[in-house]
Amino acid sequence: MYPFEIVRPSSVAAAVAALASSGGRALAGGQSLVGAMKLRLAQPGTLVDLSGVPGLAGVRRDGDAIVIGAMTRHADIAASAELRAAIPALAALAGGIGDRQVRNMGTLGGSLANNDPAACWPAAVLGLDATVVTSARRIAAADYFRGMYETALAADELIVAVGFPVPRKAAYAKFANPASRFALVGVFVAQTAGGVRVAVTGAASSVFRAKRLEDALSARWSADAASGVKIDQAGLNGDLHASPEYRAHLISVLAARAVAAAG
């Protein structure tokens, strides 16, 4: 490791000011950032520790949406009775992230700010057309994800919470890397007030919506309808774990499993 300063603000405003003045990085659960620092892939001179900022954690119902604080740990999201009653797909997604260490330290906001192309939360945010609430504004899911590890967040902007509209039905299915538990492919399906939405993570450089699956499931909501869709492999990831062709195949398979789980 190398020398760096840790700042522990006591409010969102103080955290934003610390980021603006130092040019540092926000520290949430540290599951991605600390590892990157150890490998010298990230070398911030200042870490702004958000663990002491009040009001950033918790799960609550707000009308037709569930609002989850940015500093809420994955394990707490998975255990939330309020969430399991309203959007059980999100509780199940959180319970399948990483291992016990990651679930007890990692946070929703940290995952979304990092925007790893194989992370699970981006699929839920895009699949449910969620709203990312920051220290400065509200960002629609379609406008938030910009590319690999890239988001709409400014350098001194913090995620405060995420609002997830309650769907009619939803489920998430992923084919997990056996070592990291990141998604080789993950598919979130939802019947929402605005129609059927299907979001895919792990298959490309950033999360994306699968229009052909959405059209097929809008016509007939069934596992057979999903499994019958052939996904174009163009633009999909290929690596030592899976080829683009295999990932394309997995998208339809996992969409079918998710539809079956949603009912």
Topology:
Elements: E1 5-7, H1 12-22, E2 25-27, H2 33-38, E3 46-49, E4 59-62, E5 65-69, H3 74-79, H4 81-86, H5 88-95, H6 100-105, H7 108-114, H8 121-127, E6 131-134, E7 138-140, H9 141-144, E8 145-147, E9 150-151, E10 159-165, E11 169-176, E12 183-192, E13 195-201, E14 208-209, H10 211-219, H11 223-227, H12 244-262
Parallel strand pairs: 1-3, 2-3
Antiparallel strand pairs: 4-5, 5-10, 6-7, 6-10, 8-9, 11-12, 12-13, 13-14
Outline the structure in words.
This protein is α+β, with helices and mostly antiparallel strands and 263 residues long. The protein folds into 2 domains: 5-165, Uridine Diphospho-n-acetylenolpyruvylglucosamine Reductase, domain 3; 169-262, CO dehydrogenase flavoprotein, C-terminal domain (Enolase-like, domain 1, 2-Layer Sandwich), CATH 3.30.390. Helix content is 36%, strand content 25%. It has helices at residues 12-22, 33-38, 74-79, 81-86, 88-95, 100-105, 108-114, 121-127, 141-144, 211-219, 223-227, 244-262, and strands spanning 5-7, 25-27, 46-49, 59-62, 65-69, 131-134, 138-140, 145-147, 150-151, 159-165, 169-176, 183-192, 195-201, 208-209. The chain has a 5-stranded antiparallel sheet with strand order 4-5-10-6-7. Strands 11-12-13-14 form a 4-stranded antiparallel sheet, with helices on both faces. Strand 13 (195-201) and strand 14 (208-209) form a beta hairpin. The radius of gyration is 18 Å and the shape is globular. The protein starts with a strand and ends with a helix. The relative contact order is 0.12. The model has no long low-confidence stretch (mean pLDDT 96).
